[in-house]
Amino acid sequence: xxxIFSVIAEELGLIGVMIIILLxxxxxxxxxxxxxxxxxxxxxxxxxxxxxVFLIQIVINIGGTTGxxxxxxxxxxxxxxxxxxxxxxxxxxGIAESITHxxxxxxxxxxx
Length: 112
What we know:
Elements: H1 4-37, H2 41-66, H3 83-111
Helix pairs in contact: 1-2, 2-3
């Protein structure tokens, strides 16, 4: 399943590939926006680390399937087949959402 991006390109064409890349860019943009709104440094760096993990996975997988980088077996987040990869991706998003929720409660407590 290292070549899932190639299969998407074959089946859905350039439009499908652009939509996938756009969705990944939106995910990364949202993670950076969450990091900017965090009240403490630990939460900020945690969310930025999560964004970096996703960015590295995306770049390595797409680079490997397009021939720009060697294949390493890194999965494409939320798309490639693999139970542990999907669980970890969902766990990382859950951590980022938990930080967002805690940050909203902390800001709400300061305003009240």
